[in-house]
Amino acid sequence: MPIQKQNADDSSSSNNFLQQIFESRTKNEIDENDLLFLLNETDLSRTFDRNSTFNIDHSKLLITAIAHSKNTLTFPEFVAVVNLLHTWRNLFRRHDLDRNGIIEPYALVNILNSLRFNLSPLTLETIVKRYSTRVDENSSPKVTFEHYIQVCVRLTLLNDLMHQKSGSGSPRSICSFSIDEVSVFK
C-alpha cells in the first residue's frame, strides 16, 4: 500500500494535536481506559467515522498490538496507534461510500487482501461469518467499522506472533502456539 508523503508542517501540526490530546490525561503513559476516552471523547474522535465508537476491547487490543507486553502506551506508541487506525480507516472509507460505518463482506476480504494478510479462502470465510452482522433477518450480512478494526488488530497481532515464532520471516512458515499466546485473540 503506497504511503502518502506529508508536508513537514502537516506532520508537525498533527503531532502537536496528538500531543495535546495525550497530555490531557496528565500522565506519561496511558492505559486502556485513557485510550478509550481519547478515542471516543476528544477531538480525536472526529477523525474517525461518525457512526463508530471504540470499546474497551479495542483499546486493549490496540495497546497489545503496539506495546506488546506492556499495558500502557507512551506518547510515541499512542501516535503509532492513531496512525494505524487512520490507515485502517482510510482503507475502510474506500469501500464505505455512503459513510454509514458499514461495508459489505466482500469489501472486508478485499481490504484484508490489500493489507497482504495471506489468508486461505476458508479462513476468510470464517472471518466474514464471525465479524458480519445482520440488521434484521431479511438483510444481508454487513461489517461495521468496529468489527473491522477488531479483525485488523487481531490479524496484525497474529501476524506479528507468527513472524516472531517462525524466525524465518517466511509468510508460509508453520508455527505452534501456546494457549496463553492465542488467548489475546478471543
List SSEs in N-to-C order.
Answer: HHHHEHHEHH
Q: What is the end-to-end distance?
A: 28 Å
Shape: globular
Mean pLDDT across residues: 82
Which features would summarize this protein structure in a list?
globular; 186 residues; two-stranded antiparallel ribbon; mainly alpha
How is the topology of this model organized?
Layout: H1 8-23, H2 32-41, H3 56-67, H4 75-95, E1 102-103, H5 105-114, H6 121-131, E2 143-144, H7 145-166, H8 179-182
Antiparallel strand pairs: 1-2
Helix pairs in contact: 2-3, 3-4, 3-7, 4-7
In a nutshell, what does this entry contain?
With 186 residues, the protein is mostly helical.
Structural overview:
There is one protein chain. The protein is mainly α. Helix 2 (32-41) packs across helix 3, helix 3 crosses helix 4 and helix 3 (56-67) packs parallel to helix 7 (145-166). The protein contains 8 helices and 2 strands; from the N terminus they run H-H-H-H-E-H-H-E-H-H. The chain has a two-stranded antiparallel ribbon. The protein has helices at 8-23, 32-41, 56-67, 75-95, 105-114, 121-131, 145-166, 179-182, and strands spanning 102-103, 143-144. Mean pLDDT is 82; it is low at 1-9. Helices cover 57% and strands 2% of the residues. The protein is globular and about 45 Å long.
